[in-house]
Amino acid sequence: MPIQLKRLLPLFIIFIGLFLIVRHFLVPDTFGQYGHYRGDALIDNASRNLVHASKEDCHECHSDIQEKLENDMHASLSCLVCHGPGLMHVADPLAENIEKMSGRTFCGRCHQLNAARSTDMIYQIDIATHHTEKDNCIECHNPHEVWEGLE
Amino acid sequence: MAGAVTLSSMLDTFNVLLYAADPPEGEGPWWGVGIDISKCIGCGLCARACKVENQVPQEPFYYRTWVEQYTILKDGTTKVESPNGGIDGFDQSVEEKDIFKTFFVPKMCNHCAKSPCTQVCPVGATFESPDGVALVDDKYCIGCSYCVQACPYGCRYIHPEKKTADKCTLCYHRIKRGLDPACMEICPTGSRIYGDLNDKDSDLVRYLKENVTRILKPHLNTGAKLFYNALSQEVS
User: Fold this and answer.
1) Among all residues of chain B, which has the CA nearest to that of A78?
2) How buried is residue A149: exposed, middle or buried, by Cβ count under 10 Å (0-12/13-18/19+)?
3) ipTM value
């Protein structure tokens, strides 16, 4: 072996050794567990905090409303649609901490006339002209029993 | 003979480019999404719930999911609107007499099986999970935004506070706990569904059997797993 290679060889070995040592400390343990990424990232993503409750949480206490809704136009709705995320209320059910959204703008999100809404899917009215003498839709329509007392 | 074996083993690497998305071999679910355009009423609650659930910045431009209204006019032009991503609802901006056809299109991550976004990440901070969800590792992301450019569906953004890439996780923290993703929990008409493509009894597999569905930009061969029903050709 030529003398110049002999002299460089230890240097190369030191550099490769250093690289391996640094790499050992920089690459996370779970990197490559499932693929070219940190395996713990799956746990990080899965362990984020919930904000929204689920319909089932609501039904645990409010089975009376669940029964009403099952036979009503709003049967497919989750309680969260009008009552907000609701997880605070699940944690502390006795406090007044649940939203009760209503009114022309809110109900109009779904029920305002729009050519893009299928009439098979949803009843629509023109919120600008529909019973303008009333302030809030829920004066006539109980969201839990939409047609009750109207006919 | 040896040459043929070598050649076939070399071409094997490119199989992923040649064939449509197949579920990976192995146990467990492989999640996909279905959106039924004929059921969407454009209330925008999905976009709102998503921002709340995932702490997405409230100002416009940052969306993990949003809703667009397509209006095809009688003169043949197409108008696409998405005021604040549909979060505040929609007002019909074109008079009924000028409209040929109009409909809402909810958009979100397609959770592609061969996602362009995960392929370009230089540090391995974004990936497809073993159950088929495209995720971001925000502790590893360097915020170079290659993935934001690579996504053909515009589903990624750089989070203004974290300075890392952010996107729909199919509410990974919810589906892992057995709950529905926030947008699907709140959808009043059941327009959005998700399910396990490996499970022949799942809602999504039934939806795919019952409907004629299409994906967005099929020519890009991204292996998208977001299947739209009744989606017009104008949407790409």
Assistant:
1) B186
2) exposed
3) 0.86
Q: Tell me whether B104 touches chain A (CB under 8 Å).
A: yes
> What does the angle CA B178 – CA A39 – CA B167 come to, to the nearest 5 degrees?
65
Q: What is the DSSP letter of A142?
A: B
Q: Give the span between the Cα atoms of B189 and A78, in whole angstroms.
A: 10
Between CA B3 and CA B8, with CA B5 as vertex, the angle to 5 degrees is: 105
Domain CATH code at residue B126: 3.30.70.20
Number of domains observed in the structure of chain B: 1
Q: Give pLDDT, residue A68.
A: 87
Which tens digits make up the pLDDT trace of B98-125?
A: 999 999 999 999 999 999 999 999 999 9
Distance CA A22, CA A14 (A): 12
Asked if A52 and B49 come within 8 Å (Cβ–Cβ), the reply is: yes
Give the C-alpha separation, A112 to A116, whole Å: 11
**Which DSSP letter does residue A18 get?**
H
Place of tokens 């915020």: B143
Which residue of A27, A33, A36, A52 is the best one to mutate when testing the B interface, meaning the one whose CB has the most B CBs within 10 A?
A52
Decide if B169 is inside a domain. Answer: yes
> Residue B177 is part of which domain span?
27-58+109-229
What confidence tens digit (pLDDT) does each residue in A80-94 have?
999 999 899 999 998
The answer to whether the beta carbons of residues B139 and A41 sit under 8 Å apart is: yes
In chain A, the percentage of residues whose pLDDT exceeds 90 is: 66
